[in-house]
Model the fold of this input.
Amino acid sequence: MSEQSAIFNAKSSVKAADLEHRRTINFNIGKYNAAVPGGKQQFADLAAAREKAKNLKWRAIESLDTSLENFETAFTKRGGKVIWAEDAAQALEEIRKICIAKDCRSIVKSKSMVTEEIKLNDFLHSQGIESIETDLGEYIQQLDGEPPYHIVTPAMHKSKEDVAKLFHEKLDTDPNLSPEALTLIARAKLREKYTAAEIGITGANFLIADTGSIAVTENEGNARLSCAFPKTHIAIVGIEKVIPSLADLALFWPLLSTFGTGQKVTVYNSIISGPRQTGETDGPDEMYVILLDNGRTNILANPAARESLYCIRCGACLNACPVYKNIGGHSYGTTYSGPIGSVITPQLKEMAGWKHLSYASSLCGNCTEVCAVKINLHELLLENRREAVEEGAAPWSEKIAWKAWKMASMHRNLMNKGNRSMKNWMVNKMFRGWTSTRAPLDFATKTFNQLWTEQHKNEP
Done:
């Protein structure tokens, strides 16, 4: 068992038994689940829309090299600068260089999972640079010293009482403030940061190949402020976020908002194509886009796993997953949690240390059913398991157990030789891995094969 697997087992065991945590999560996810069917009504043919989105992502990923080069060409024509980063270390070093050149002491940052992936805030802190999260949920998590809990809703696991208590402890506010009052306090504090920051950092929901633009979708307007007020804007984007054309946003924006939060479209949707142009009054003097690989080309090179790069990070699979709803986002111990995280994390990092995430699934298929771009998530989880075994990551005891099971299953006579007590002993005592997290099995006195034979013994 890897260190990460042991941590996962310990954290998930605690959270699964925490009934208050489960109540909060199911309450918050329930609000999304109630809203999503209404949002889906805007599509005349939802199945066709999802299929088209999947095909567009297929086209972009299959021609990823050309798509990214087209983006770079169009973006640089408008004065933007593109930086290619092979891994997190390269991305952080490039950001450090920009910060030094701009004599940066403070940064405002909008919600971005890829910046969590490279641990940007920790790095900036080590460089003596203040980095402030401007998304309300991310700001709450930053105050509490926690990473995001959910791809879309970073503080989903906190109740309004939890947030009020946190603000009281960190900002010395009244402990009984309403959510509206807490929001106004956060707004007032963050407004001061926008005007003081030398650099604004955002992610991007999509890279638009034909126009050389990034598309950012949000509900609070903080991303717009983060890239408009500071003189320098840095967008850090995973290379898989590319889509072929600006026209494709007419499909992807409604899909993302509907499957993410149930909205027909999010409140603020921005298309940014470079720094401020001649005659424009708003925007930064300089704009950089950092195209991050960080293991994504490993997935690209894997024909079976490549489909996972289609993900648009709507979070629908997390909301649908029975495992996620019981153990929560932090138990996964990685940036991307839930079904999509369990699929891509072993591929982005290394299979041996993270294969346990692919087993944190009931394989019910609900994640595949709700995916906005029809990724076969539960099949990819099985594919990860297969790869882990082929790479030799499965322990000796597991291999022996499955060989024995295969032999017995393929030979009916062997299966019938074991009586009820022997089978109970084999599963519950000898192979204790089953009962370590499950109730003991109690086999029937007679097998189905024996019952069938007895019922039909007089038939010709």
About this structure: The longest strand covers residues 232-238. DSSP finds 23 helices and ten strands in the chain. The chain has a mean pLDDT of 93.
